[in-house]
Amino acid sequence: MALSVPAIMKTTAARLSALYLLLFALCAVALVFYMTSLSARMLTAQTQETINDEVLGLARAYQRGGLPVLVRVVEARSRQPGANLYLIADANGQILTGNVQSLEPGVLETEGWTNSPFSYQRFGEGELERQRNLPADQSTTQSDQNEPQAQGEKGHNAIALVLRLPNQMIMLVGRDLGEPERFRAVIRRALMLALGMMGLGGLLIWFFVGRAALKRIDSVSEASRRIMGGDLSGRLPVTGAGDEFDRLSENLNAMLARIATLNEGLKQVSDNIAHDLKTPLTRLRNRAEATLSGKHKPTDYRQALEGTIAESDQLIKTFNAILMISRLEAGYSSENTNRVDLAEAVRDVVELYEPVAEEAGVSLETDVREAAFVNGNRELIGQALSNIVDNAIKYSTDASAQPAVRVAVERVGTDVRLSVVDNGHGIPDDGDRARATERFVRLEKSRSQPGSGLGLSLAKAVMTFHNGRLDLLPGNPGLSVVMSFPLWEDH
């Protein structure tokens, strides 16, 4: 998708590239100027030290033989190649000897170090420059004094130490500043090259990295628009690179899957309420209508009202179970958790259902050897276990052998498993075992046993709330319902 320059600069990738480029450029400029200044100061200090050494050497020559020896030494050193400057002038500033042809005006008027770099020309450079610049027919006989001054303003730069000899003659010892200037030029070129490379690098990073990021963002935006349009089955693209975009997409996909599950659960609840609660409500209406039609004894009215209340209580329990399942599955339950001993919870539930099992002719046994602590809610665990034990007792009465239900607690690795096993017909089909934990699902075709089909659904929701797992396994014969809890860890 082609973007204009203003649109590109609104993207995060382009802004980050520009920001990093600006930051690197500022750091590079500051570093280069600092190194240039530091190097220039070091070179200036070395230059002054070199000049002082030259002055000491010339002073010793002057002490040995006076002005004639000094002039010979200056002439000898002037003919040597190098960056040093030597000059001897009279009291009026007229150059007598040395390798300097012209100076910037005013240099010889002050004694000591020059306040700032001055321009000069070496001996022989003025005539060559003049011959290059002047027309052929122009007079070549001009004042020598004016020519050095004019040419001196266009020459090299240097610093020097100016001394007055006892006979009022002037001696200048200096050094050319061409090396520091060339160093600064090299640094400037390096700076421009570095800035150019950083600019090119920023463009390449944007082209290869930023455009790829923009394409991925566009694909995420396109998938988001489809999802916002109502297609909750859509998912954000994951390339498998494992980067931030993939992690974000994976988390959003997990969130979308969770939302889709909750929406599907809501839809199922609505459908189940419409189908499964229609029968008890119709029964209530028919009972009330039958009671109102005709004449009945007071005891008949009382029985009808008691039946209506019992039916209403069952409906209220069903709605409460639905609300509890929804809260637990959504993770918004206000129930508190703490350390719970599953062994003690099993003993309490078994003690509660022993009379029911004895009345139904079912042997209810426990296999609890030691305490097993988990992090959970005692009431929720007890309610889920009660539903499972109640189902096991009801559906084990049609066993060919002596009906029996066994409740056991054992530790397996980092889990605590609470299992309820009966010897009834069980659920042979794997698909039916998977459907058994859905709301209002009752695999019994005759519906001869009481219930609403919410017991295992509530147990599954309780296990989800406890970060555990509910498994329905074949008991050979019968059914084994296993509740797996994470083991309590002392902190």
Automatic annotation (TrEMBL):
Return the Polar residues bias intervals: 136-149
Question: Pfam families recorded for this chain?
Answer: HAMP, HATPase_c, HisKA
Q: Does the keyword section mention Nuclease?
A: no
- Compartment(s) of residence: Membrane
What protein name is recorded for this chain? histidine kinase
Transmembrane helix is among the record's keywords? yes
HAMP domain residues are 211-264
EC number annotated for this UniProt entry: 2.7.13.3
Which GO molecular-function terms appear in the entry? ATP binding
